[in-house]
């Protein structure tokens, strides 16, 4: 019985230590680009781990930045994030992206952008350097979804423009 108690306490202790790993920086961000045919908009959703975003905001915005309780800090981080993300069409013409807003959801900070869907959107040149000037190991994952088909890219610090082909528009 005593051995069982020791084993249970060990498992609980290890679980607590494993839980602390989630408090460390993930150094990953995820962007979803979705064709919304109903609205006619290409919706861009950037998802950052709040813990990473907090550390970054204190370095690139203000040492007192508080993304959780201060909407001004959140907006400042959003403008930083959108300034480090760019899209070009197949002819390498820049797409004009409109900032929509931010949202806190659990352990994530979301930043939203959009642009109108145009004809012949069958691929994009993407560039996302968000957080990479702070952490060279930062990986920015991008998924583009159209007609339930997803194309993906992983952007690292050494990457420049990355071309991603997407599914053709449904007839």
Counting helices, strands and paired strands, the structural category is alpha+beta
**Spatial separation of the terminal alpha carbons:** 68 Å
| Residue-averaged pLDDT | 86
How are the strands of the largest sheet arranged?
4-5-2-1-7-8
Strand residue percentage: 35-45%
Overall number of strands: 9
Radius of gyration: 20 Å
- SS summary, helix count: 3
Order of helices and strands: HEEHHEEEEEEE
Globular, elongated, flat, extended or rod-shaped: what is the shape? globular
Task: Give the helix level as a range of percent.
Answer: 25-40%
Low-confidence stretches: 4-22
Largest sheet: 6 strands, mixed
Question: How is this structure best described in words?
Answer:
Strand 7 (139-146) and strand 8 (149-155) form a beta hairpin. The strands form 2 sheets. Strands 4-5-2-1-7-8 form a 6-stranded mixed sheet. A 3-stranded antiparallel sheet has the order 3-6-9. The relative contact order is 0.18. Mean pLDDT is 86; it is low at 4-22. It has helices at residues 2-20, 50-60, 71-83, and strands spanning 28-36, 41-49, 85-88, 98-105, 108-116, 123-128, 139-146, 149-155, 162-165. The protein contains 3 helices and 9 strands, in the order H-E-E-H-H-E-E-E-E-E-E-E. Helix content is 25%, strand content 37%. Helix 2 (50-60) crosses helix 3. It is globular, with a radius of gyration of 20 Å. It has 171 residues and is of the alpha+beta class.
């Amino acid at each position: 019985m005593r051995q069982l108690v020791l084993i249970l306490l060990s498992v609980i202790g290890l679980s607590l230590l494993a839980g602390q790993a989630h408090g460390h920086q993930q150094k990953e961000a995820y962007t979803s680009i979705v064709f919304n045919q109903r609205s006619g908009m290409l919706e861009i959703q950037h998802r950052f781990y709040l813990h990473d975003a907090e550390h970054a905001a204190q370095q690139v915005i203000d040492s007192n930045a508080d993304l959780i309780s201060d909407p001004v800090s959140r907006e400042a981080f959003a403008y930083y994030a959108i300034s480090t993300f760019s899209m070009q069409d197949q002819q390498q013409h820049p797409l004009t992206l409109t900032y929509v807003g931010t949202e806190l959801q659990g352990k994530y900070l979301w930043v939203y952008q959009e642009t109108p869907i145009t004809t012949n959107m069958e691929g994009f040149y993407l560039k996302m350097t968000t957080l990479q000037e702070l952490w060279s190991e930062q990986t920015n994952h991008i998924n583009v979804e159209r007609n339930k088909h997803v194309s993906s890219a992983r952007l690292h610090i050494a990457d420049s423009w990355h071309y991603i082909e997407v599914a053709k528009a449904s007839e």
